[in-house]
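Input structure tokens:
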């Protein structure tokens, strides 16, 4: 008997996805109760390793688009490690790696093909959103950090624009959804770092972030 398409799509993904969900759950519980400072490095590393494993397992390195996505995943994993520290220079290095990851995802969307109409329409939406971010985040930054925030905001805005353009060209929603989750997760990271530290930022930001990376990782198997 033939296996149904959904089962075939997610074949081999159960273990790493469960590892990510388990690691994230432990991480969030630890964040809420403040049990141990050593839990975060272990759980974040395991969760990041899981989406890298998925990327390899699903053949990201076998296509031009996939190569861009996989490099983006690797850069994101490095960024995760850098953000484990609360020291400003580690945060800046981590943010730089995430900025490069967003650019890699831009490259992936471009290789798919871009609808100029959808690209321009998305600029109308993400442009004002970037301005709002500037308004609320920039007052909390100075010097190099301010320049990095501005550059990063531009990068994530371009990523969303190219993701929309790619959707308009291909009609596939999976990568657009992944890009959107990544985009929103960054807003929670910025709120946590610059505006107000609270558990809600970690809950939403980390959940959306790992969901996005898992979606990017298995994207070669998704045809919608």
């Amino acid at each position: 008997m033939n296996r149904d398409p959904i089962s075939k799509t997610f074949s081999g993904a159960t273990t790493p996805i469960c590892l990510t969900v388990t690691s994230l759950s432990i991480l969030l519980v630890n964040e809420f109760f403040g049990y141990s400072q050593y839990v975060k490095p272990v759980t974040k590393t395991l969760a990041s390793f899981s989406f890298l494993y998925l990327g390899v397992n699903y053949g990201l390195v076998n296509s031009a688009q996939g190569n861009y996505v996989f490099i983006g995943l690797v850069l994101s994993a490095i960024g995760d490690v850098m953000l484990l520290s609360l020291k400003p220079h580690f945060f800046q290095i981590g943010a730089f790696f995430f900025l490069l990851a967003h650019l890699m995802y831009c490259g992936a969307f471009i290789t798919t093909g871009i609808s100029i109409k959808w690209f321009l329409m998305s600029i109308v939406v993400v442009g004002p959103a970037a301005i709002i971010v500037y308004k609320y985040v920039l007052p909390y930054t100075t010097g190099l950090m301010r320049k990095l925030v501005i550059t990063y905001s531009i990068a994530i805005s371009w990523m969303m624009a190219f993701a929309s353009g790619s959707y308009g060209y291909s009609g596939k929603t999976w990568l657009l959804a992944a890009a959107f989750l990544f985009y929103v997760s960054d807003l929670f990271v910025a709120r946590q770092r610059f505006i107000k530290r609270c558990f809600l930022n970690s809950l939403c930001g980390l959940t959306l972030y790992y969901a996005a990376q898992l979606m990017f990782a298995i994207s070669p198997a998704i045809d919608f």
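Residues 24 and 43 are 7 Å apart (CA to CA). Confidence is low (pLDDT under 50) at residues 1-8.
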